[in-house]
Amino acid sequence: MALRKSESTPFPLLARTATIHVSRPVHLVNGSRLAAFLRITARGGTNPTLNVKLQDSPDGENWFDIASGAFTEATNVASLRLALQGPFGSFVRAHST
C-alpha cells in the first residue's frame, strides 16, 4: 500500500493564553501511522508552559487521548515531534493547555 501523506495546521500562528485550546479535527482515512510536529516560535510571561496532547474520535463527537500522544511539556521555544502507530479513530485533533 502506498504511503498517503496529509498535512494540516490545526492551530494558526498566534499568541496563546492560559486557557484550553482545541484544534479543528483532521479526518483520517485508514490511517495507521501518524507524525505530529509542534513548533513553538516565541514565549512570554514569567513561567510559561504549554502541554499539547493528541486525541482521536470514531465519530468527531466523543474524544479519547491517544496513548503516548502527548508532547513533552514546553517551557521555551522548541520544535518537537511525535511518531505514533495506530490504529486511530476516524478523526484526530490537538488539545492544548
Query: What is the H/E order?
Result: EEEEEEE
Helix content: under 10%
Class from helix and strand fractions? mainly beta
Round the Cα radius of gyration to an integer and report it.
Answer: 14 Å
Mean pLDDT: 83
* Total number of beta strands: 7
- The geometry reads as elongated
Question: Can you put this structure into words, describing what you see?
Answer:
This protein has strands spanning 21-22, 26-27, 33-40, 52-57, 64-70, 78-85, 91-96. With 97 residues, the chain is mainly beta. A hairpin with a 6-residue loop joins strand 4 (52-57) and strand 5.
Structural features:
two-stranded antiparallel ribbon, 5-stranded antiparallel sheet, 40% strand, single chain, elongated, 97 residues, mainly beta
Provide a concise account of the structure shown.
The protein is mostly beta strands.
Secondary-structure blueprint:
Elements: E1 21-22, E2 26-27, E3 33-40, E4 52-57, E5 64-70, E6 78-85, E7 91-96
Antiparallel strand pairs: 1-7, 2-7, 3-6, 4-5, 4-7
